[in-house]
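// run 5 | inverse folding | seed 20
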């Protein structure tokens, strides 16, 4: 176990170097994840058509509603595992890992049943156009049928990242991406299976990723090893997982709900707007993956250092991570705006769809940096074990204001641009609230007190 600590611990060393060492495998991994999702969209758009592109694109918010809740819930396990690992509590580390796997299996089964039962009525509530409804339903049903493998992969990846191993998830994602691309080309381009082929390729690649990640966890000799006979819920561990993870899960649900409202608003503008929005989701996904990778990094970084009672290092790491994320996001936003037309042409040759996409991106592009403050500050606070307050701020600041914007502001000027404006407005408000909340440092003092630990020093306002 001491060898694992030496290799994976991020409680020592130069902060920016340790952050980047941990960050880059996550970033490259998320890049490959985004790549294989993007390949789906490119192949559907270029080889099947605009209607199929819209059908696959309109399912994303529904999938995220259920899957996002579970991933948010399981993030509580990631925080707890990182704290046990940082504090050297190997007995509870093992219990937390096996509880996490049990959560993946049970949660995956529940989501599969819920998804299959609600797929058609949910698409109806979204106002999905009749011409793409059957394809969208087909994609959803196949995706939900294999959702357990997605859950296993997400939990297994969370376990490895919690103990500081961000390389193995990268290798698994690369393998998963390659499998998905090959199957996409085989099923869609060669066999001409259309949306059916894309859905099957996605699920089968997730099967591969789940198997590989479980082999990694079962073959190690360290304290986070998974043994099938020990997979069960530990009551006290599960209670803490829910305490930390449930707010994150509910936050994800609120995000997805607000996005469903936005998707329904986009759907009212027709198939071209839906297809354009689907393409944009893949383009700006590369910006989101950078912010998300930094968010995962700071959550794990804070978790391990909090567990090791290195509170001054916690605060320094947040400042460093915020600066790195801001610089990277601004650079990527500028590149996206400079090359948005050729980027959109990767997904479609339809000039109307491309023109709509450019109008959307001119609104979104200059605003992404605002979300950096939300991502980094909420990730840091959650890493220390406080999850309720970040959820409340995000729910009311982002999700609530989005819905309010769609129902109160858009009717006065019912255009696609007005729908898109909800993003910069809500990000600006929520970023301001998070900044004030973080700088007061009350959250860190509460987490130290609830952990029963004695701090190195009394945290002062940053």
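// decoded
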């Amino acid at each position: 176990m001491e060898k694992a600590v030496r290799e994976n611990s991020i409680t020592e060393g130069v902060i920016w170097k340790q952050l980047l060492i941990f960050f880059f495998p996550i970033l490259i991994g998320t890049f490959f994840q985004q790549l294989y999702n993007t390949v789906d969209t490119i192949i559907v758009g270029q080889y099947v058509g605009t209607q199929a592109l819209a059908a696959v694109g309109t399912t994303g918010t529904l999938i995220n509603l259920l899957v996002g809740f579970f991933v948010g819930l399981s993030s509580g396990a990631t925080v707890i595992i990182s704290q046990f690992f940082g504090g050297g509590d190997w007995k509870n580390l093992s219990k937390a890992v096996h509880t996490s796997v049990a959560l993946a299996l049970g949660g995956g089964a529940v989501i599969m049943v819920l998804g299959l039962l609600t797929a058609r009525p949910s698409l109806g509530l979204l106002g999905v156009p009749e011409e793409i409804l059957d394809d969208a339903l087909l994609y959803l049903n196949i995706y939900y049928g294999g959702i357990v493998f997605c859950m296993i992969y997400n939990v297994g990846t969370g376990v490895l990242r919690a103990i500081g191993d961000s390389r193995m998830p990268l290798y698994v994602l690369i393998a998963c991406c390659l499998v998905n691309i090959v199957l996409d080309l085989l099923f869609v381009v060669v066999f001409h299976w259309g949306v059916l082929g894309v859905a099957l390729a996605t699920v089968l690649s997730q099967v591969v990723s789940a198997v590989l990640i479980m082999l990694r966890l079962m073959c190690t000799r360290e304290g986070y090893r998974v043994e099938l006979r020990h997979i069960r819920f530990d009551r006290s561990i599960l209670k803490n997982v829910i305490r930390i993870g449930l707010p994150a899960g509910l936050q994800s649900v609120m995000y997805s709900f607000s996005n469903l409202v936005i998707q329904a608003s986009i759907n009212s503008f027709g198939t071209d707007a839906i297809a354009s929005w689907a393409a944009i989701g893949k383009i700006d996904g590369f910006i989101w993956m950078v912010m998300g990778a930094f968010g995962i990094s700071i959550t794990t970084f804070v978790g391990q250092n909090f567990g090791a009672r290195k509170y001054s290092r916690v605060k320094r790491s947040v400042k460093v991570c915020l600066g790195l994320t801001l610089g990277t996001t601004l650079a990527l936003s500028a590149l996206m705006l400079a090359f948005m037309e050729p980027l959109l042409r990767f997904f479609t040759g339809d000039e109307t769809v491309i023109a709509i996409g450019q109008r959307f991106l001119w609104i979104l592009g200059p605003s992404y940096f605002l979300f950096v403050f939300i991502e980094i500050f909420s990730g840091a606070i959650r890493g220390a074990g406080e999850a309720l307050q970040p959820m409340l701020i995000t729910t009311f600041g982002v999700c609530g204001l989005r819905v309010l914007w769609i129902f109160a502001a858009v009717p006065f000027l019912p255009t696609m641009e007005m729908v898109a404006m909800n993003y910069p407005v809500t990000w600006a408000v929520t970023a301001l609230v998070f900044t004030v909340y973080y700088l007061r440092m009350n959250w860190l003092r509460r987490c130290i007190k609830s952990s029963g630990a004695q701090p190195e020093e009394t945290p002062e306002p940053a």
